[in-house]
């Protein structure tokens, strides 16, 4: 599937190639490929177990999680990731163990990532190949960045703005522990301020409806409010509360399967974990 992006102010059509990977029959993870600044670029190459042998001069990872950056070492091209964490790509064994601890069988489904020979650190505000701006966007993970392809007006948000499931008409947080709500909200604001004409999510589609960034910010605030009142509740109770408050959550819960299990369950765990840690301690008398 090729998603064609155009801007009224430009004569040429700009193209982003979209390769979506499924797990359990559901489309789940997307790899993006484009030409920018004269280079063949792959953004978020996907898990090691579902490697796509694309031509690449550079591989850009929005963050180091295995479902998006796990196959980067197979490309033989330089792999770009946040400067403070890029060295983990040289020996990704710790990334794999950390993912198994949080995601269990899903981490095993993504496969053990091969080492990258050439990891390149990127910093907030950098411009890559004269064409792609780097925006540090922590919250989902401290090593998360977004990439803004200026000529195409496309912002690749990784997991920093939730997951977009077009079949369900739903955006849902993708916030496994350790999630940082405070940083996440700041990052959303920064991404919105870029003024992109289209946004592409790593889970798992693109849209020109850039207002989804603001809608998602409100959604995240609403989740924090609802769950913040009783962060010690069970997951099932949390699902019920959220389904009542948020149509997106209700749709994902009704759809069940991997969307409910991976997105909703893991995301709610991340919220509850953050909110429990943020809760002021009781006075001891
Ligand atoms: Zn992630």
Q: Which class do the helix and strand fractions yield?
A: alpha/beta
What name does the CATH topology carry? Metallo-beta-lactamase, Chain A
Q: pLDDT average, as an integer?
A: 91
User: What are the low-pLDDT stretches, counting only 5+ consecutive residues below 50?
Assistant: 1-13
Give the number of helices. 8
Provide the helix percentage.
25-40%
Tell me the overall shape. globular
Explain the overall architecture:
The structure is a single chain. This protein has 285 residues and is α/β, with parallel strands linked by helices. It has a single domain, classed as Metallo-beta-lactamase, Chain A (4-Layer Sandwich). 33% of the residues lie in helices and 25% in strands. The protein contains eight helices and 15 strands. The chain has a seven-stranded mixed β-sheet. A six-stranded mixed β-sheet has the order 8-9-10-11-14-15. The radius of gyration is 18 Å and the shape is globular. The relative contact order is 0.13. The N terminus is likely disordered. Zinc ion binds next to loops.
């Amino acid at each position: 599937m090729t998603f064609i992006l155009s801007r009224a102010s430009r004569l040429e059509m700009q193209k982003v190639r979209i390769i979506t990977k499924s797990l359990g029959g559901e489309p789940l993870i997307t790899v993006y490929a484009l030409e920018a600044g004269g280079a063949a670029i792959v953004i978020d190459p996907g898990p090691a177990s579902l490697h796509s042998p694309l031509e690449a001069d550079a591989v850009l990872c929005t963050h180091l999680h295995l479902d998006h950056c796990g196959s980067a070492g197979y490309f033989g091209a330089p792999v770009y990731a946040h400067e403070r964490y890029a060295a983990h790509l040289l020996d990704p064994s710790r990334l794999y163990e950390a993912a198994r601890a949080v995601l269990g069988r899903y981490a095993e489904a993504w496969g053990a990532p091969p080492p990258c020979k050439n990891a390149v650190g990127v910093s907030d505000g950098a411009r890559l190949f004269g064409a792609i701006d780097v925006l540090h966007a922590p919250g989902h993970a401290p090593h998360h960045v977004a990439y803004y392809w200026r000529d195409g007006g496309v912002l690749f948000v990784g997991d920093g703005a939730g997951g977009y499931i077009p079949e369900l008409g739903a955006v849902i947080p993708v916030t496994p522990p350790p999630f940082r709500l405070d940083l996440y909200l700041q990052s959303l604001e920064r991404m919105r301020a870029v003024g992109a004409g289209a946004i592409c999510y790593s889970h798992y589609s693109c849209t020109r409806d850039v207002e989804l960034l603001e809608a998602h910010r409100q959604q995240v605030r609403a989740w924090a409010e609802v769950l913040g009142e009783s962060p010690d509740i069970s997951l099932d109770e949390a699902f019920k509360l959220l389904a009542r408050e948020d149509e997106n959550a209700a749709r994902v819960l009704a759809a069940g399967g991997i969307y409910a299990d991976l997105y909703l369950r893991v995301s709610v765990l991340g919220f509850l974990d953050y909110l429990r840690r943020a809760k002021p301690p009781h006075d001891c008398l």
